[in-house]
Automatic annotation (TrEMBL):
It comes from Spizella passerina. This is ARH37 factor.
């Protein structure tokens, strides 16, 4: 089957491609904005007193440069 733009002049074809990409880009931007509205990125969460004591204990034992907060899934090995 022949595509509808099979007999188009080259400049017209590239115009169709450009328009399609601009439309897809606009749709993607709108989707990203909607997604951010529905599921905002996680912010800082307050620690419970027990969690705060644990963090302070770890910092005093190992130092602040050895303590990391994991904010996403991790994989791999040491």
């Amino acid at each position: 089957p022949q595509l509808p733009h099979g007999h188009m002049a080259l400049p017209s074809f590239w115009k169709v491609v450009e328009d399609s990409l601009q439309q897809s880009g606009a749709q993607l931007r709108a989707f990203c904005q909607a997604f951010e509205t529905v599921a905002p990125s996680p912010g800082t969460q307050a620690l419970t007193p027990a969690e705060e004591r644990k963090v302070l204990s770890l910092v005093s034992k190992h130092g602040p440069d050895k303590l990391y907060q994991v904010t996403s899934n991790t994989s791999g090995s040491r």
